[in-house]
Design brief:
Helices cover 60% and strands 7% of the residues. It has 740 residues and is of the alpha/beta class. It is found in: Membrane.
C-alpha cells in the first residue's frame, strides 16, 4: 500500500514496508517471516482455547443449553469479524507490526503510546498471573507449601526459558503441545463425568439440566462476558501476522481457530453440563470429577499454563524490541549481542512479573482491573475504531459488506463498553469474567489453600477487605467451610462458639456447656477444616475462676481440640488473664459489648453502648484487650456508630455481630443464617437459606414414603434372581427343619 504525504502544495507517495523487510541484506540478518498458516493457527489456538473452555459448563448451567450454543456461535462470528479486520489492516499496512503501530497510523503519537503502554502493562500483569498460578500449581504437585515462593520463582524461570527464542515459529511447536494438553484434560473430564454419572443423579434418580434459563440481568452479563473473553486473542494478531510468510494466510489460521474453538467450547460446555446436571457444575470444569481424576487433568493442563503465559509475554517483549531497534541492524541481527539483549529483556520482564505476583498483596484485584481495561478493548473495541478509520481512508477489504462490517465493528465497541460496565456492577466478581482469572481459579483448585493466619487477617484490615467469620460445631459444616476456599477466598475464621449450647445441644444457657463438650466439638471441626483459622470459646467459669484455670482451658482446647486460638469474653477487667493466655502461646480474640456469658449481669441480651458512659466503657475495654495482646476484638450488639469508632481506633481487626457494617469483619451463627434454628432470632441475623424448612419437609416426606411402602423401591434395593433366592430359601428351610 502507498501512503499519500502532502507538503507545501505537492504530493508524494511512499510504499509501506515492514521493519523486517527494511533490514533484509544486513549482516547477521535473521529471517522472522517463516511461519505458515498451520503454525499461526497453533499460536492463536493456544492463546484462546487453553483456558476459556474451562468456564463453559458453568455458563451452560447459568443460561441453559440453547442460549449457550446461540451465544457462543454468535460471539464467535463477532470475534472472527473483528480479527479479520485486524488482519486486513495488517495486510494493507505492512509497517504495522503491533497495536502501538496501529495506534500511530490511526491516531498519531498520543494514541500510539497509549496502546504501547496498554500492551506492556497487560504483558507484565499476565506474566505475573501465570507466575502466581503456575507456582501454586507446582506447590500442590510437590506437596511442599514451604517453598511456594521458590516454586513461583521456578515458574518465572521456566517462562523466561521459553521466551528466550525470539521467533514465534519456535513457540508454535510448544503451542501444538499446549492445545493437545488442554484437549486431553477436557476429554478426561468428560469421560470421568460419564463414567461416574450415577453420582450426579438427584433424589429422583435423574440428572437435571435446562434447555434455557434466566439467571437475571447480572447472570446474563456475566455469562456473555465469559464467552467474550474466551475468544480474546486479538492483542497478539499483529505480532503473529508479522512473522507469517504471507500475512494474508493468517485468515486461514483464523478460520480454523474459530471453527475448532467454537466446536470444542460447545462440546465441552454442553457435554459436561448434560452429564452432571445444573447443581453439580463447577468452574473451572476440571474440578468436577473425583479428586484423583481432577489432579491428573490439572497436571496435564499445566502445559497450557506455561505456553499461554509465554505467548503474551513474547508479544510485549517484541513490541519493546521494535521500539528500541526499529530501522536499526540490531532488530534482525542474529549475533550474540542481539541475543544477549533479548535475553536480558525477557529476564527483566519475568522477574518483574515474579515481584508483582509475590509482593503486591492486592495483586488479584489489580489484575482484574488491568484485564478489564486492556483485554476487552484490545479484543473487541479497537477493531471497530480501526475499521472506521480504514474505511474513512477508502479501503474496502472486509469479508462482508461494508454495512455489515460497520455494524459488527460498532458492536465490538459496544461489547467493550458493556464489559467495562459489567465489571463495575459486579465488583469483586470481575475476576470470574476473564480467562486469566479462570486460570487463577484453576490453580486455586489445584493448590492446597494457604492457611489463614493472624498476619493475613491484619493485611485484610489494612486493605479494607472484609473478614468473614462463621460459627462451626461439627465435621460436615467444617467441610463446607473448607470447600469455600477451593473456589474463592472462603471463610477466614471458623468459630466454635459456646452458642452450640443452644443450637447443637439444646441447653437453655451457655453456662451449662462444659469444657469437655467444647473440646469434643472442636475435634470434629479441626478434622474437617484446615484452611480457616479455628477459634474456640473458653466456656463459662474458667476465665473468672483464676488465671491458671483460664490458661489451662485454653491449652486443652489447642492441644486436645486442635484449634488455633481461643475467644475470651471480657474487657479491661479480663485484660490480665488475656495477657496470661497470650504469654502461654495461645492467640486470643477478645469479646466486648454484649457478652452472653454475663447476660444476667447486664439485664439480658440487650444492646450495649447506647449511653455515653456505656460507650466509653466499651471503648476502654477494647483498648485494654488490644494492649493485653488480643489479635482481634469481637463487638456484639452495639450501635453501628460505636462499631465504626472503635474500628477506626484499633490497630487489630474488629469482628462485628450486630455492630453495623463498618467493622473489619462479620460473624453469624451458622444455624441462624441457614434457617436451621428458630427458637429465637436476634435482629442482626439475616437468613441466607431455609435449611431448617427443607430438612423438615424431607423428614416428613421420608416418613410418608415409608408408611406408604413407597420406599425403598426396586432401584434402591439389592436384588438377586428369583431362582437363586428359591435355592437359598430351600437351604434355610431345610436347616430350620433339621434343627427342630
Amino acid at each position: 500500500m502507498k501512503v499519500i504525504l502532502k507538503k507545501k502544495g505537492f504530493e508524494t507517495s511512499v510504499e509501506e514496508v515492514d521493519a523486517f523487510e527494511k533490514n533484509k541484506g544486513n549482516k547477521d540478518y535473521l529471517e522472522y517471516r517463516t511461519m505458515g498458516w498451520c503454525q499461526g493457527a497453533a499460536l492463536l489456538l493456544a492463546e484462546t482455547l487453553a483456558l476459556g473452555v474451562l468456564s463453559f459448563p458453568n455458563i451452560a448451567s447459568q443460561i441453559g443449553i440453547a442460549p449457550t450454543i446461540v451465544a457462543t456461535i454468535g460471539l464467535a462470528y463477532l470475534a472472527w469479524v473483528t480479527e479479520y479486520i485486524l488482519i486486513d489492516f495488517k495486510v494493507n499496512h505492512p509497517a504495522v507490526m503491533s497495536f502501538a503501530d496501529a495506534g500511530q497510523v490511526v491516531g498519531g503519537p498520543i494514541f500510539k503510546w497509549v496502546l504501547f503502554v496498554g500492551i506492556m502493562v497487560n504483558t507484565v500483569f499476565i506474566a505475573a498471573s501465570y507466575v502466581n498460578s503456575g507456582g501454586t500449581a507446582f506447590v500442590e504437585m510437590s506437596h511442599n507449601a514451604r517453598c511456594s515462593v521458590l516454586l513461583g520463582f521456578c515458574m518465572a524461570l521456566l517462562g523466561f526459558v521459553f521466551t528466550i527464542p525470539r521467533k514465534f515459529q519456535h513457540t508454535s511447536y510448544a503451542s501444538f503441545v499446549s492445545c493437545g494438553s488442554i484437549v486431553t484434560a477436557c476429554l478426561i473430564t468428560i469421560i470421568a463425568c460419564g463414567v461416574d454419572r450415577d453420582q450426579w443423579k438427584d433424589a429422583s434418580g435423574s440428572v437435571t439440566y435446562k434447555a434455557a434459563a434466566n439467571p437475571g440481568l447480572i447472570g446474563v452479563i456475566n455469562s456473555f462476558t465469559n464467552i467474550l473473553f474466551a475468544y480474546g486473542g486479538h492483542a497478539a494478531i499483529f505480532s503473529f501476522c508479522s512473522e507469517m510468510k504471507n500475512p494474508n494466510d493468517f485468515k486461514k489460521s483464523l478460520g480454523v481457530v474459530q471453527l475448532v474453538s467454537t466446536l470444542f467450547y460447545i462440546t465441552v460446555g454442553i457435554g459436561v453440563y448434560a452429564l452432571v446436571g445444573e447443581n453439580k457444575v463447577k468452574s473451572p470444569a476440571l474440578s468436577i470429577p473425583r479428586y484423583k481424576v481432577e489432579i491428573a487433568a490439572y497436571a496435564i493442563a499445566m502445559v497450557s499454563i506455561i505456553v499461554a503465559g509465554v505467548l503474551p509475554a513474547l508479544v510485549g517483549i517484541k513490541q519493546l524490541w521494535l521500539e528500541f531497534f526499529r530501522e536499526k541492524p540490531m532488530l534482525t541481527s542474529n549475533n550474540w549481542k542481539a541475543q544477549a539483549i533479548w535475553t536480558a529483556l525477557a529476564f527483566v520482564t519475568w522477574m518483574l512479573a515474579f515481584v508483582l505476583a509475590q509482593l503486591i498483596p492486592f495483586f488479584s484485584s489489580l489484575l482484574s482491573i488491568i484485564s478489564s481495561i486492556t483485554n476487552m478493548w484490545f479484543t473487541y473495541g479497537l477493531s471497530g475504531v480501526i475499521w472506521l478509520w480504514d474505511n474513512k481512508r477508502g479501503s474496502h477489504r472486509s469479508p462482508a459488506s461494508n454495512a455489515m462490517m460497520l455494524k459488527r465493528g460498532l458492536q465490538g465497541v459496544r461489547e467493550a463498553v458493556s464489559g467495562k460496565a459489567s465489571h463495575g456492577i459486579q465488583g469483586s466478581q470481575r475476576s470470574q469474567r476473564s480467562h486469566l482469572i479462570q486460570l487463577r481459579q484453576m490453580s486455586k483448585a489445584i493448590e492446597k489453600p494457604r492457611k489463614v493466619t493472624i498476619s493475613s487477617l491484619n493485611k485484610l484490615k489494612k486493605q479494607h477487605m472484609p473478614i468473614t467469620v462463621l460459627t462451626c460445631y461439627d465435621y460436615p459444616t467444617a467441610k463446607n467451610i473448607e470447600h469455600t476456599h477451593t473456589t474463592q477466598d472462603g471463610i477466614n475464621i471458623a468459630l466454635v462458639g459456646d452458642s452450640l449450647a443452644f443450637t447443637a445441644l439444646g441447653y437453655t444457657s451457655t453456662s451449662q456447656l462444659t469444657l469437655d463438650e467444647m473440646i469434643h466439638h472442636c475435634k470434629a471441626v479441626s478434622r474437617g477444616a484446615s484452611t480457616p483459622l479455628i477459634i474456640a470459646d473458653i466456656p463459662f467459669g474458667y476465665v473468672g475462676l483464676s488465671d491458671e484455670a483460664a490458661v489451662g482451658a485454653a491449652i486443652r482446647l489447642v492441644r486436645e481440640g486442635g484449634v488455633d486460638g481461643v475467644k475470651i469474653e471480657g474487657g479491661a477487667k479480663e485484660a490480665r488473664v488475656i495477657a496470661k493466655v497470650v504469654d502461654a502461646g495461645v492467640p486470643v480474640i477478645a469479646h466486648a459489648g454484649l457478652q452472653p456469658q454475663r447476660a444476667t449481669q447486664t439485664s439480658g441480651f440487650r444492646v450495649q453502648g447506647k449511653t455515653a458512659g456505656s460507650a466509653l466503657s466499651i471503648v476502654e475495654d477494647c483498648k485494654a484487650v488490644q494492649e493485653a495482646g488480643a489479635f482481634a476484638v469481637l463487638l456484639e450488639a452495639v450501635p453501628p456508630q460505636l462499631g465504626d469508632y472503635i474500628t477506626e481506633r484499633l490497630k487489630v481487626p474488629t469482628i462485628g455481630i450486630g455492630a453495623g457494617g463498618g467493622t473489619d469483619g462479620q460473624v453469624l451463627v451458622q444455624n441462624d443464617m441457614v434457617g436451621a434454628f428458630d427458637a429465637f432470632r436476634p435482629r442482626f441475623v439475616r437468613v441466607f437459606g431455609d435449611v431448617g424448612g427443607a430438612t423438615g419437609e424431607a423428614i416428613e416426606s421420608y416418613a410418608q414414603s415409608v408408611r406408604a411402602r413407597d420406599f425403598p423401591s426396586a432401584e434402591e434395593s439389592y436384588t438377586i434372581e428369583e431362582s437363586k433366592w428359591n435355592e437359598i430359601r430351600e437351604h434355610i428351610e431345610k436347616k430350620e427343619r433339621q434343627q427342630e
